[in-house]
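Trying the structure run again after the queue cleared.
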Amino acid sequence: MYNLLLRLSALDADAASALRVIGFFDALIAQQADVATVLRHTAELAEAPAGIRTADGILSQIAEPGGLLRAGDPPPDAALHRLATGDELWLDRAGAPLPLDELVIERFGLAVTAALGRSREHQIAESDPETLVQQALRPGLPDADRHRLVRRLGLDPARAIRVLAVIGSSDAAADISAQLKPARHGDIGKVTAIVTSAAIDNRTIRVPVGARFGTSTARDADGLPTAWRQAQAALRLSLPSTHPKPPYEMEEAAIVRYGQMGAIAAVIERLPKAALADIPDVDALDRLAAELGGEDMIRTLEAVAATKSFRRAAVMLHLHHNSVGHRVTRAEKVLGFRISDKYGHARLMVAIILQRLRNSIDLF
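Done. Tokens:
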């Protein structure tokens, strides 16, 4: 059938010729032609180089009318046809377009979309769950591909999905993931990402000692890259869990929710890394942390800044409130200001936040 149609570009754009172009590409689709085959036959039919560049940039190929297939980007003067998936097609015809070129491009797009879909489905089917999670969170992915990945993860693309960014041992991350059904997890650098449609309840979820996580707002599948960015921002404010069983109060920061961060989220996402160096209040906290019992001191200051109360901080730390007061008095000598002064708690909290951000620079 193909050989009968290779000269169609020389014909007028009448109904019979148009039907034969449609039949040509329908045959490619029916035979489940791969991308290379679609490219070659399109170039032969159009008697002009035909090319494709996928939205992720992984594939960029050109087929010559003689059958040669090579890697290459579209020529500067090529008229690009963008598909709904973000992939781009073109015909590199010298001179004016022929009457049937518009129809050829349209049907070329349908055939190559079908071929790419089969290829992507195969890649997804062959992927392990960790790779599926990594790919689902990657920005720039066509929505249709992301939906396929989400379905492969056992989630519904139309339902609300949350992303968690977890720091802790591999067993701790797996334990948190196992409590959220359905959920899948995978490592992305030093952080474990968990993708789930389950709600996150501080009163019931267990966070193993030493582990911590940030969680995004609920998004649909198209918003997963944004959800992953949110989870990372929230993780930067978190603190290691100190007890293995719930509940976890907000002041403990073992679980930090992006949706509760408010303006702090904007600071985290816009503050350049270089701005976190040489901050006197943060340097003072570092000196306190370096002293004997420094970890307990920083925990005390964090509790005081979060609760604005020695008594509430003492309950949180399982100490007598006088012990908290003595620690604060000692810390104030290094900090250079009284925490009880006007804006003292706010200044301390800002310093603590900046220290956490500085300490988490290397996570991502």
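DSSP finds 14 helices and ten strands in the chain. Worth checking whether this holds up in the mutant runs.
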